[in-house]
Amino acid sequence: MTSSEPAILAENLAKSYRRTRAVADVSLRVDNGETMGVLGTNGAGKTTTVEMIAGLRAPDRGRIRVLGLDPRRDRARLRQVLGVQLQDAYLHHALRVVELVELYRSFYPAPRSTDELLDMVDLTDQRRTIFEKLSGGQKQRLSIALALAGRPRVVILDELTTGLDPAARRRMWDTIARLKADGVTVLLVSHAMEEVERLCDRVAVIDSGRVLALDTPAGLVARAGAESLDDAFVALTGKSLEVSA
């Protein structure tokens, strides 16, 4: 991949489940080192979109490239440079936190150290805790650590701070800021407006499986003639994100 090519390129993606159309027509371009936010109510198609980009679902139509790789055809190569954290983590409940981290580290040639990963997500004190004994927020933070184990060049995060207390949420924001400083490309699905405004260079608003708007947070506010990103979202979609998310 040359430096002029985007880190993520999704063109005209579509996906249906039987008679339900989850994604109708989504195109996204995320440049190298950019943090792109994805906003949408439940059922808007945002999670299906990022799952297709991650190679977890095959699109019915459209083209995807991540660092020049096809997520389905080049799955093994992409796994070495892409980190993915989704809302539902399916991890072995009987393993300890440190065992899960070390397992994931074994998948990569030059992973981050176990201590660094646990410190990044504030789980050092829980290193000997069995996964099923973790709180919901701790499980979320562990899934983020696992996504970062291989020093990925692109990271996909779905509802990064859902279920986290304010202190843990800000710690995660600091972690994303560190990734940005290292030139990592981040695709962030979120319904937390403060999070999006703080972290994202640009934001895609998705509704009914389509991209309604794509701009900087300030650009979306100006385009909608609104006073806040929350108000801009309502103006653009006619829906309240806080109620639906």
UniProtKB/TrEMBL annotation:
Entry keyword set: Antibiotic resistance, ATP-binding, Nucleotide-binding, Transport
Mode of membrane association: Peripheral membrane protein
InterPro entries per record: AAA+_ATPase, ABC_transporter-like_ATP-bd, ABC_transporter-like_CS, ABC_transporter_ATP-binding, P-loop_NTPase
Subcellular location, principal: membrane
UniProt GO molecular function: ATP binding; ATP hydrolysis activity
PROSITE patterns: ABC_TRANSPORTER_1, ABC_TRANSPORTER_2
GO-annotated biological processes: response to antibiotic
All residue ranges annotated as the ABC transporter domain in the record: 8-233
Gene Ontology cellular component list: plasma membrane
Subcellular location: Cell membrane
Signal peptide: none
Protein name: ABC transporter ATP-binding protein
